[in-house]
Specification:
Blueprint: E1 2-10, H1 15-28, E2 32-37, E3 41-43, E4 54-63, H2 67-80, E5 95-101, E6 106-107, E7 112-113, H3 122-131, E8 136-137, E9 140-141, H4 142-147, E10 156-157
Antiparallel strand pairs: 1-4, 1-5, 2-4, 3-4, 3-10, 6-7, 8-9
Amino acid sequence: MHKYYLSLGANLGYREQTLHQAIMLLRDNTSLCVTAVSSFYETPPWGKLDQPAFINMACIVETNLSGVSLLTVCQEIEQKLGRVRHEKWGARTIDIDIVYSDDVVSHTDRLEIPHPYITQRAFVLVPLQEIAPALQIQDKPISYWLQQLPDVQSITKTTD
């Protein structure tokens, strides 16, 4: 059984409703067990700044699926919820990224685990710290990485 940490975000449409639906679809998948879900956090855009604010969250799933198979599940959920890929880091109805795993590492064109920007993204680390406060990334606690980031103060917890 593998443990994967997912980051979910939305900045178009009914953001919270879409994230609730994504979690529901993850829970409905018989190959997955969702073991933790964070609160929602309103976050400024990252990478491409001229777009609406995001609602971000994190969850933990346990599964026997490979990283690539889990990625396929996540992308199918994104499509079901109206995701259209226009531009890198652009506005989207839903984004589900596999950002970390305790025991799976992948460095392919299709999937990078750990996510290459995990330590640079407060919008990923803040919700992740809520549900996995003891998680170590590159042998350092999440709190260490958050201290390195200037945008942590711009992230606001909204709901559960």
